[in-house]
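Ticket #446: bound-state structure for adenosine-5'-triphosphate.
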Amino acid sequence: MKNEAFQILVVDDEQAYSDSLSIILRSEGYAVDTETSSVKALEKIGNKEYHLVISDFMMEDMDGFELLKMIKEKKKELEVIIVTGYGSIKNAVEAMKKGAFSYYIKSHDPTELLHEVSKVKRIRALTEEIQQASESSRYLMRSKNKKMQEIIEMAEKVAQSDTNVLLLGESGVGKEVIANYIHEQSNRKSYQFIPVNCRSYSKTLLESELFGHEKGAYTGATETRIGKVESAQGGTLFLDEIGDATLDTQIKLLRVLDAKYIERIGSNEHIDVDFRLICATNQGLKEQIQQGEFREDFFYRISTFTLEIPALRERQEDIEEMVRFFVKQISRKMDKQALDIEPELMAYLLKYSYPGNIRELKNIIERLIVLSSDGILRKKDLLANQQHSHSLEYTLKEVRAQAEKAYIEQMLRHMDGHLSETANRLGITRRQLFNKIGQLNIHVEK
Ligand SMILES: Nc1ncnc2c1ncn2[C@@H]1O[C@H](COP(=O)(O)OP(=O)(O)OP(=O)(O)O)[C@@H](O)[C@H]1O
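RESOLUTION: The complex was predicted; output attached.
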């Protein structure tokens, strides 16, 4: 991680002290924000991804212990260095027991502090490396299919430039996975990959999600919030289902791409932004343009480089390896023993048409693993699962309930257990979703 990507928040109610600290830290290239109030600092921490907080111990509105406790409650992984005077070393040591990374004595040589900061940075980089190594085994980025091989190759090439990319393909073919891969292969990889699904939000909510808002910008905006475009600073912004963005939102995005700055809703302040845009859609944008639902100029701007990801049924030669990959991955996740696949099942899976593409294949394997009690995945379990659509022993109400349950569970998994977004996507209220979860005995994994 480069120093500029390492975000530090300095909290001290003595403005002069936090200013001088930030000058020292900035001279090393770190990105520094300062705050004189602990309460406001907590708000900032909620809104932005910091890597380190350097906080004074004695402050007027909250003492160091309390601030530390609240930071750790909010963000366990966020490191805190306590700054203290000679008189309160005992407290600083106590703070370390409570989770502070280390402490720094105010009158000491600042190189000591810089040394501690670089330690936090090194540890953070190591943790991220480990995370990335385990993430790379999350995806199978190999293919025997010629078209898919070309797509992976082109994704690697385009990753080296800053070109905007448009990913086309049916739902579940792995557009987000490819977008993430492009980010990981690019020199923006030490910054964040920020995905936003445009279908999950109403127009106002999407714009506030993207551009952020100032406190009081509209009813319900109770605090200032940083948008996803700002969070993608230095990194990659992935806009999924871009066809769902309204014409107004498209104009605003076009302006951001041209002017390279945003204004939070309710503010005139220009905030410079630098990110790569990757968009995806499973709709025909050309038809949407003809119907006046999608701006042509925006389309040309986002589609400098277009990749069309084939449906899984068009790359049948990859199914077997993918089945084995998911069996291994999911059984490890569920802590189940190594699993064998019955040949009849494999033969069925190789011929099946997968209207839901890779997502459907993954879900099928997950269900089969859950149903297997002896370590063997069998075709009969697959059919048992689909039985309700073939057998005639269920009432209409039961069939409806089963279908609803399966669909809600699938959507919850897709939205990573995020309830509001799931409700939004299902077109019901959060309360209705809660009721369904209770009635249908749905298990929510976060
Ligand atoms: N190459 C791959 N290796 C492993 N898993 C994959 C791969 N491609 C896709 N998947 C899995 O398939 C599921 C669907 O992938 P993804 O969300 O990227 O599809 P999508 O095309 O963006 O779907 P949608 O259009 O519905 O948003 C995810 O669970 C993802 O982890």
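RESOLUTION NOTES: The longest helix spans residues 110-136.
TICKET STATUS: resolved
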